Amino acid sequence: MTTTAIDFEAIKDKQRAGWETGDYTRVGNTLQIMAELLVEAADVRAGQQVLDVASGQGNAAMAAARRFAEATGVDYAVNLLEQGRERAAAEHLPVTFIEGDAEKLPVPDQAFDLVVSTVGVMFAPDHQKAADELVRVTKPGGKIGLACWTPTGMVGQLFKTVAKWAPPPAGVRSPTLWGTPEHLTELFGDRVEWTSLTKREYVFRYYTPQHFSEWFRQFYGPITRLAGTLSGEELREFAADLAEVARTFNQADDGTVAAPSEYLEAVGIRR
Question: What are phi and psi of 233, to 5 degrees?
Fold first, then answer.
């Protein structure tokens, strides 16, 4: 029996098109607190070389730069890199942004004291290759810090809902596996000693479940792209499905949305 090889490059081309649709920064900027907490957990120091992988508009890179680290953000979505440059300029932060693929980072071996990713590298379709790259570019004794959505949290449910409308490519593992200690052990083995594995919650705050649905359909690139293929009753059903995710996890009692979503914050030492 033969197995069909997964065309990761074709998958990434489609992913890139998704992230370059809509305006992901309108969503990503709301997640800034996750990057601030991750950089603090990693105990970043002034002057350290820090790489933010799959940085998007640069949340973690900017968090590191605020602490006087020498920060670089890398992503394959050029529109997000440009928005990162605009953000950094507005805050007078000397962040460098470069175009690159998380599965083949355009940086030298063992070049960084700290390599981080907030809900970014988890979307690389070849999990093992992405993990290998994180190890490759981190100095021995340096740190790797990750913040990744868990399979059981609100975003995990959001992804399952989206998958009903647009099933993921065959053979590609769920990005939310990165939010489990077991998967990190599988990917990194004894190359990383995880010194901190902390379950945290990010709280999505919106006016209503419908507002959450509208915001993600308008700005969250992959969902924006999917919504653009739907019309009429299908689009209304899709919008309702997204709103139901927010409604299910909502803990607010005043009509607004305050919906916690679990993620795993992992910090480890590269051996």
Answer: -65, -35
